[in-house]
Amino acid sequence: MYSLFLIPFTLWKLSGGSGDEAEAVKTWSSKSGKGEKKESMWQHLRTVFTGRMLLAWLAWALLLWYVKYSMGSIENFDPFAILQVPLDATEAEIKRAYRKLSLVYHPDKNPDPKAHNYFATYIAKAYKALTDETSRENYLKYGHPDGPQAMTVSVALPEWFFSKDKQTAPLILLVLLFGGIVTPLGMAAWYLMGTQKFVGPNQLMEETLLLFMDPRYGIKASQALGRLPETLVCAMEFISLPTPSDQGPAMDELRKTVLRLHPDLKDKSAFWKRRTSVLKVHMLLLAHLSREEIPAVLQKDLEFLLTKGQPLVREMLGLSTAPRIQPGYGWLTPTVGCIELMQCMVQAVPLESKKAAHVGKSAESPAALLQLPHFDKETLRRLTRKKVKALPELQQMGGDERAKVLKECGLSASEVEDVETMLSAMPTVWVSAQCVVEAEELDDEVVLTGDIVTCRIQVMLTRPSHMAASFDPDSIKGKAALAYAPRFPAPKEESWYFLVADPATNAALAITKQNLLQAEAIGARYAANWSAKHNTPAVAAVGSNGSAPGGGKSGGGKGEAPPNPLLAGTKLDPFAANGSAEALDSSIEELGQTFELKFYAPLAPAKYDLQLLCMPDSWVGCDRAVPIKLRVDGATRADREGRGRRAALQRTEESEALMAGGDGSNVDSDAGHEDEEGEDYESEEYGTEESGDEGSDGEASDDD
C-alpha cells in the first residue's frame, strides 16, 4: 500500500511535476547542450530527492525488510519429506523410517510438548498416508491424504481483532468505522478537492477564474495594458503564495526600488494596503519589467510569477475575447493589452514605454529598443543624440556602423555581440489577408449582415539570420521556435496571435493562436532563393536595408548589395506578383503558411475599416497591422429568399438560358422567370416582377 503512493509520487516529481514546470523540464532536456543538460539533470535530482524524500524511501526499505523476514512461509504437507523416504519407497522402508522417527519424537521417548505435537500432526499422519492405500492414492492424485481440499482464505489482521470478548467490541467497531469508512472517504475527498481546484486548459485554480470575472478585479472593456497587472496579481495562485519572515528585509529593499521607479505610488495607499503576497507579486513584476536587481531570497517567487503568469495572462486573453458584443465579438482593448503584457513580461520592458505605441507601429516606440540586451533609458538618451530614435533605424544600419554607435553609447564588445544576436533573431512577418463569404465563392463579394465571413490569411516569417551563408533552411524543425528571451527564467516558445479587430467599436471579431514554424521554413527558403537570385553576399548577423553587408552604404550602383528584404518597411512585398515570382522556384506551391479566421459580419450595414493584427507573445515591435476594407449590405427579404443581388451574381450561363426559356424547360421556381414580352424587374433588388400567370391580380408586392 505504501508503494502504491511512494513510487508514482517519485516518478511524478522526477518528470518535473505538472503544467509549465514539466514542459520547461522537457524543453531544457531537449534544447540544452550536453554540459548544461547534465548540470540541469543533477540539479533536478537534488531538488527531487530532498531529506523528506530520502526518509520516505528509507521507511519503504525498512518495511520491505520487515515484511520479507517476518512473513511465515506456507508449508505443504509432504509425507515423503516428513518420513525422509523416496517416492518409490516400499512399505518396509516406510515402517523403518517411522520407527526411527518415533524413537526421537514419540511422547514415551521425548517428553517435550512440541515433539509430541510434531509427532501427532506430521509423523503419524504421514505414516498413515503412506501405509493406507486410499490415503496414498489421494495424496498422489490431489496432493493431500484426505482428498481434494477447499480453498482457505486468511485475513491479515491481528488475532485480538476477532476476539469474542464483549469489552473489545467497541474498539473493533471504532477501528472499522474510522479505518474502513471515515479515513478512506476523507482521503478521497482531500484528493478530489486538491485535483479539481485546477481547471481549464491552462490548469488554473477555480478561484482565479471567479476573480478574473469579478466586476471589482476582473477584465473590463476599457482595461488597457497599464491596468492589466492589477487583475493579474489578484490570481489565487499569487494570493496563496507564502511570505516567510526571512523575506522581510528583501521586501523592504524591493519597496524602496519600486518607489524609486514609480514615485506616484507613494501616495496611493490602496496599493500598499493589499495582502502581503499580492503586494509582493506586484512589486516583483514592476521591478522585473524595469530590469532591476531582485534580492536572492525572492528569486524563486519571481520565477514562479513569470512562468505561472504566462498561462494566467492567456486566461485573461480568453476572457477578453469572450463574446459580449453582438453578434458575438469580444473586447479589443484588453485583448491587445494582454498580448502586449506577455511581450513585456518575456522581454522585461516597462509598461509605460509600451502602452503608448499602436499595433503595427510599435517598432517606433522606446519599448522596442528597451527589449534589447543591456539597454536602459540612459542608453536610449545616448542613441537619441546619435539620431537613432526607433528600432528600424538601428536595424537598417550596417554592422560596423551599428557596433560603433553602440560602443559610443557605453556598451562593451560582448554586450554589442549580445545585441547583434538578438537583432539577428528578430522576426518579420509578411501577411496577406482576404475576406470572403463562407457560403458562396463570389468574384464580386457580397457581404450581408449576419453572414459568416472567412478571413483567409497567408503568412511568411523571416529573420535576418536566414541570410547567413551557414544557415540551412532544413534545420527549422520541431514543434515551435524558441524566442530569444535572456530575461525569462525558462525556455519560451514563440507564438503569434492573429486578431480581426474593429477599432472604431472596440470589438475583437475573431482571434487565433498560431505556431509559425512552417511560415519560417518557407521564409528561410525565400531568403536563400532571393540571395541566389541577386548574388547577395553572406550576412554575418543582421543585414542592412539600403546598406551593404559589412557596414558600407549602398547606393544601388553596380557591384553593390541590394536591400535586404528581411526587414519590415522595405518596398519588396513577397505576396505581390513581382515579389514571389523572382524569388521562388517551382518546388514551392504556396508562399506562406495559410489558415482562416471566421467571424459574423456586423449587424449594421456600413463600410468598415477593419484591421488584421498580427502580434507575437515574445517580441516587442514585431507586430503588424493589415487594413481590411469590408462593406456590409443589409439583407432584404429577397436576399433571404435567395432572389436578391447575391443570387444574380451566382447565375451561370445555364441558369440564364433557363431564365430565358431557350431550351423550353419548365422551371417551378418563380425566381428565374421573365415574361414573354421581356419586361424587366421593377424592384432594384430583383425581388419582384409582374406576374403574367392566370389568376394573378397583376399587383407587385413591396419588398423590405
Automatic annotation (TrEMBL):
- Keywords (A to Z) from UniProt: Chaperone, Endoplasmic reticulum, Membrane, Protein transport, Signal, Transmembrane, Transmembrane helix, Transport
* Gene Ontology molecular function, alphabetical: protein transmembrane transporter activity; RNA binding
Q: Which domain of life is it from?
A: Eukaryota
- Gene3D superfamilies per UniProt: 5' to 3' exonuclease, C-terminal subdomain, C2 domain, DnaJ domain, Sec63 N-terminal domain-like domain
UniProt key word NAD: no
Q: Gly residues bias: where?
A: 548-559
Query: Which Pfam families does this chain map to?
Result: DnaJ, Sec63
Residue intervals of the J domain: 78-143
Give start-end of the signal peptide: 1-19
Start and end residues of each stretch annotated as Disordered: 542-567, 637-704
SMART domains for this protein: DnaJ, Sec63
Q: Where is the composition biased (Acidic residues)?
A: 673-704
This protein's membrane topology, according to the annotation, is:
Multi-pass membrane protein
List where in the cell it is found.
Answer: Endoplasmic reticulum membrane
For this entry, list what GO says about its biological process: post-translational protein targeting to endoplasmic reticulum membrane; SRP-dependent cotranslational protein targeting to membrane
**Descriptive protein name:** DnaJ ERDJ2A
- Per the UniProt record, the source organism is Micractinium conductrix
Which classification does the entry list for the species? Eukaryota, Viridiplantae, Chlorophyta, core chlorophytes, Trebouxiophyceae
